[in-house]
């Protein structure tokens, strides 16, 4: 990257491939940043020493891979809500397209050694269940998306439960703020009509409409 590249605006999101990359990048960012920052805060002055321990590194690896499908579901739901409501986007086909996109992102990754095939496939099934639920309720505001995910995410923190004290609300607030930022970036970059066309999520034409 050149010096002036850092001042360039991010490229517009105009197709399914670009949207998939956006979802993937932000899903990984949301879960990993939360895990490492929480662990660092809980470890305090001992953070550097703790992060060098092989056992702790393995725990973090398990946590981030287990949490990744939750991140995918949360970011996909933010995307679903951000695209819905525009005249270029059909709710039913759009939610189905986002589901297929998110599952395709999950399938990019080989089975993590930290989890094994059985657990990984179970996480995929849980992700699919969450993605299918999008169409069963009205789109949510980005700040409300983490509510059904926050407890499960917090339970994955690689810190003993006796040390976590009452930090669950802090983690929930972190997810809310971060997903609001994801929503803001998406709405600034996305070309709704182009993405809808790419995903086959355009509203059906009214009967009798002139060509």
Describe the structure in your own words.
There is one protein chain. The chain is mostly helical and 211 residues long. The protein has one domain (11-199). Helices cover 64% and strands 0% of the residues. The protein is built from 9 helices and no strands. It has helices spanning 16-43, 47-52, 54-83, 91-106, 117-132, 150-154, 161-164, 168-189, 192-199. Helix 3 packs antiparallel against helix 4. The radius of gyration is 19 Å and the shape is elongated. It starts with 15 loop residues before the first helix and ends in a 12-residue tail after the last helix.
Describe this structure in a few short sentences.
The protein is mainly α. It has helices at residues 16-43, 47-52, 54-83, 91-106, 117-132, 150-154, 161-164, 168-189, 192-199. The chain has one domain.
Instruction: List unreliable stretches of 5+ residues.
Output: 207-211
- Give me the count of strands: 0
Radius of gyration: 19 Å
How far apart, in Å, are the first and last alpha carbons?
A: 46 Å
Topology, element by element:
Elements: H1 16-43, H2 47-52, H3 54-83, H4 91-106, H5 117-132, H6 150-154, H7 161-164, H8 168-189, H9 192-199
Keywords:
211 residues; mainly alpha; 9 helices; disordered C terminus
């Amino acid at each position: 990257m050149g010096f002036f590249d850092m001042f360039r605006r991010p490229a517009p999101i105009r197709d399914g491939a670009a949207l998939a990359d956006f979802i993937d990048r932000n899903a990984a960012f949301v879960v990993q940043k939360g895990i490492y920052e929480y662990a660092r805060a809980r470890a305090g002055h001992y953070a550097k020493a703790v992060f060098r321990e092989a056992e702790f590194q393995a725990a973090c690896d398990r946590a981030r891979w287990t949490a990744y499908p939750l991140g995918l579901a949360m970011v996909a739901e933010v995307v679903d809500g951000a695209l819905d409501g525009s005249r270029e986007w059909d709710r039913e086909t759009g939610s189905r397209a986002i589901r297929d996109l998110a599952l395709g992102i999950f399938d990019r990754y080989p089975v993590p050694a930290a989890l094994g095939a059985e657990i990984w496939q179970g996480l995929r099934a849980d992700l699919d269940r969450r993605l299918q639920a999008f169409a069963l309720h009205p789109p949510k505001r980005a700040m409300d998306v983490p509510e059904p995910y926050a407890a499960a995410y917090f339970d994955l923190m690689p810190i003993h439960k006796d040390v976590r004290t009452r930090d669950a609300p802090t983690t929930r607030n972190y997810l809310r703020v971060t997903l609001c930022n994801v929503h803001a970036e998406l709405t600034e970059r996305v070309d709704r009509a182009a993405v809808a066309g790419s995903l086959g999520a355009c509203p059906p034409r009214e009967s009798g409409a002139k060509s």
